[in-house]
Amino acid sequence: MRVIVVSGVALGALISAWVALFATTGLYRHPSAAWSFQAVTAIQVVVLVFGLRKTAALGRTYWGQVRAGALMSIVGGAVVAIGTLLLMTVVAPHFLEDVRRLEAERLAARGVEQAEIAARMAAAARIQTPGIQAIVGFLGTVATGFVASLVIGAFIRARGDDSNGP
């Protein structure tokens, strides 16, 4: 269980650090760099591979690996949620408003009517809150981790019966 917790905390800390870097450096302001936010998926896969290698060495077979990866992702997701709340309330409380302002500017540049822009920004503001973003970060981390564990577990596992539990 220690490997799962340590890997999960590392997963959440690394993702939180990347998101904080993305938000505090203004990388999100550059449309050409928006793809780089997706590095969180690569971070998660790399951490899961390292963690699942350790749990395979402990004798976990396929379903044991899937469960271990899912648990790592739940722990990591909790850390991501806490990191998101800290980022958006303490470190960069302006982040979500900046994102909405930038989107409004892009829509205006494309010729979208001001009334429609205002309506879109009002709708976005209802779901772009620190709490909702923390929940989305948690759920995204768990879902991505579960799917990745299904794949990674097929390649990194102990051979034998699948009765190993978490």
List keywords for this structure.
mainly alpha; 77% helix; 6 helices; elongated; 166 residues
Please describe what this structure looks like.
With 166 residues, this protein is mainly alpha-helical. The chain has six helices and no strands. The C terminus is likely disordered.
Layout of strands and helices, then pairs:
Layout: H1 2-24, H2 39-57, H3 62-91, H4 95-109, H5 114-127, H6 130-155
Quick recap:
This protein has 166 residues and is mainly alpha-helical.
Strand content: under 5%
Roughly what is the average pLDDT, rounded to an integer? 89
List low-confidence stretches: 161-166
> Can you write the helix and strand succession as a string?
HHHHHH
Write down how many β-strands occur, each being a DSSP E stretch of 2 or more residues: 0
SS element count, helices: 6
**Describe the biggest sheet?**
none
Helix content: over 70%
Overall geometry comes to elongated
Whole-angstrom Rg? 19 Å
Supply the helix-strand structural class: mainly alpha
Distance between the termini: 7 Å
